[in-house]
Amino acid sequence: MVHPVTPEISDLEQIADDQWQSLAVAARDRHHAWHTPTVANVGEGIAQLRTVVLRSADPVTRVLTCHSDSRAPKITQLSKDPRCSWHFYDRDAKIQLRAYGNAWTHQGDALARQRWQDGAWRSAQCYRTPLAPGEPCTEEDLDIDAPVDPATGEEHFVVLACEIDLLDWLFLRVEGHRRARLSWKQGRWQGEWIAP
Ligand SMILES: Cc1cc2nc3c(=O)[nH]c(=O)nc-3n(C[C@H](O)[C@H](O)[C@H](O)COP(=O)(O)O)c2cc1C
Predict the structure, then answer these.
(1) pTM over cut 0.70
(2) How confident is the model over 73-104, as pLDDT tens digits?
């Protein structure tokens, strides 16, 4: 039997689906406003924020990924407290999306190996330096003139993955802003309108 759904619930589920479609497009399109989100975690007692490149967004598994260096402070912090937030803002679409979930890393496994071979090695100059991200150094230490070799740097390469279970969607409109909280519960996105 098909249960009738209220228009509100139906609309909110559609909003959740639409956001995941936009995220999937943003991961593939480097010109998309959501291609470079801010990722946050709590570390050393304060909100830690940084820009990353969104590498994948899977509407089915609800997993977002970016690539990173296993030596980066965020990786250590997230291993202690995996709570993670992502902030996306599209100025033209007038949409802010915040996504909340728990993070983990893939290092040296099938996924990390695949991403490395698929091209991560090309943009992974940082993974080849002996310096951990955030480590004090001289300016000369930062000049890397060795040719890029796909065989190096992989030992520091990680895929940071985050399973999302809460979305906060804000749509700015002249006729009145709209904001919704979308929670993954009992196998589906359940939404409620909240004040912008
Ligand atoms: C446009 C842009 C894209 C970036 N992409 C990534 C990324 O995909 N992964 C990453 O670890 N750092 C990326 N960074 C660097 C981070 O913002 C940050 O400086 C670095 O990861 C160290 O962060 P942490 O000290 O919090 O670990 C990017 C920076 C910019 C400006």
Answers:
(1) yes
(2) 999 999 999 999 999 999 999 999 999 999 99
Please check whether residue 90 lies inside any domain of the structure: yes
Structural domain includes residue 18: yes
| Residue 7 within a domain | no
CA 63 vs. chain centroid, Å, equals 8
Q: How many CA atoms lie within 13 A of 159 on its CB side?
A: 24
Q: What is the pLDDT of residues 30-55, one digit of tens each?
A: 999 999 999 999 999 999 999 999 99
What atom of ligand 1 comes closest to residue 51's alpha carbon? 17
Domain CATH number, residue 73: 2.30.110.10
Contact residues of ligand 1, CB 6 A cut-off: 36, 48, 50-53, 66-68, 72-74, 133-134
pLDDT one-digit tens code per residue, 130-173: 777 888 888 877 776 655 566 678 889 999 999 999 999 999 99
φ, ψ (nearest 5 deg) of residue 130: -75, -10
Instruction: Examine residue 192 and state whether it is found in any structural domain, yes or no.
Output: no
Atom of ligand 1 nearest to the CA of 72: 27
Q: Residue 153: left if φ>0, alpha if ψ -120 to 50, beta else—which one?
A: left
Strand 38-43 to 178-185 pairing: unpaired
Distance of CA 137 from the midpoint of ligand 1 (Å): 18
Query: The domain containing residue 40 runs over which residues?
Result: 13-186
If one counts the domains in the chain, the total is: 1
CA of 182 to the centre of ligand 1 (A): 27
| Ligand 1: nearest atom to the Cα of 48 | 26
Asked if the model's pLDDT at residue 57 lies above 60, the reply is: yes
